[in-house]
Amino acid sequence: MKFAGKSVVITGGATGIGLALALEIGGRGARVTLFEPRKDVLADAVAGLKAKGIPALGFAGDVTDRSSLEALADFAWDQAGPVDAVIANAGVGGLHQSVLDFDLEAARGLMEVNCWGVWQTLQVFGQRFRDAGRPSALYATASENSLFNAYPFGGGAYVASKHAVFGLMDMLRREVPAHIETGVIIPGWTATPMTRGKGMPAGEFATRIVDQMEAGEYYLVSHSYNAVRMEERWSEVREAFAEWAPREDGDDQYDVRLFFERLRAEKAKG
After folding, report:
1. In this structure, are 65 and 134 located in the same domain?
2. CATH number, domain at 72?
3. H helix intervals, 176-225
4. What is the domain extent for residue 119?
5. Which of 5, 101, 172, 187 is 20 to 30 A removed from 262 (C-alpha atoms)?
6. pLDDT of 177-213, one tens digit each?
7. Where are the strands (E) in the chain, listed by range?
């Protein structure tokens, strides 16, 4: 999506990756509406954007509360014109504990933000985009941790939540009507408050990602060394299949996609 003249909503937009994306997208001529639960942080972010000449609004709320997201949508449509895109970016890092010892209440709280909050955001805005029939876009922030485990240990809840976002977006892109673009943002190690300022400069990251958004890409990527880690994971998976489940004649009978393609073909014949 080309962002000049567009209205864009960003959850978790007052700090970190969300704010970096707001600065980049706003710098390309978009109006941005930030969603953030901390009112003081939100006010500072909006003021900073306006100081750079970016039309910006803020709305305080929580992605775990659907009524809050509905109120955000009403506000954005009323104050910034018809919304053209939403970036479901809000997320938290959580504890670092072993999977076997992880505080499950803390894990549920993380999932409420990183998984259900993303899903609710996509539903609230996606349903309106679908009904309006205008060109629009749904984006969500996953992570390199949706492709492989960047954390060697202790990040089970976070890694699981980002795998969930990656799978959710992969399904969504196959379901939405043609007038809705989709994209999954896959940050690597980026300098934000969550990473204590370590990693790729957030502005550099945002420029890379927004270039791809404007080019209409689905996989929105940034850190080239991620490909090395991906290959490590998938080479291990391929080796397991080669050893224990190699291709053989007739194995396509158990492929789910091919089954439904055959079923549709049979129904089409009558």
Report:
1. yes
2. 3.40.50.720
3. 202-214
4. 7-223
5. 172
6. 999 999 999 999 999 998 898 999 999 999 999 999 9
7. 7-11, 31-36, 56-60, 85-88, 136-141, 180-186, 219-221
d(CA 84, CA 3): 9
CB contact set of 48 (below 8 Å; sequence gap of 6+): 19
Our measurement of the distance from residue 131's CA atom to the centroid of its chain's CA atoms, rounded to an integer in Å, reads: 22
Asked if the structure places residue 2 within a domain, the reply is: no
* Residue 173, in any domain of the structure: yes
Q: Provide CB contacts within 8 A for 82, sequence distance 6+.
A: 7, 132, 134
List of residues 6+ apart from 111 with CB closer than 8 A: 157, 160, 161, 164
CA count, 13 A, side-chain hemisphere, 200: 20
From first to last of its 270 residues, what are the pLDDT tens digits of the chain? 999 999 999 999 999 999 999 999 999 999 999 999 999 999 999 999 999 999 999 999 999 999 999 999 999 999 999 999 999 999 999 889 999 999 999 999 999 999 999 999 999 999 999 999 999 999 999 999 999 999 888 999 999 999 999 999 999 999 999 999 999 999 999 999 988 989 999 999 999 999 999 999 999 999 999 999 999 999 999 999 999 999 999 999 999 999 999 999 999 987
Q: Which two tokens stand for residue 49?
A: 């954007």
49 and 18 in one domain? yes
Q: How many domains does the chain have?
A: 2
What six digits make up the tokens of 197? 């300022």
Q: Decide which of 201, 223, 245 is a domain's last residue.
A: 223
- Same domain (yes/no): 201, 260: no
Instruction: Classify residue 264: in a domain, yes or no.
Output: yes
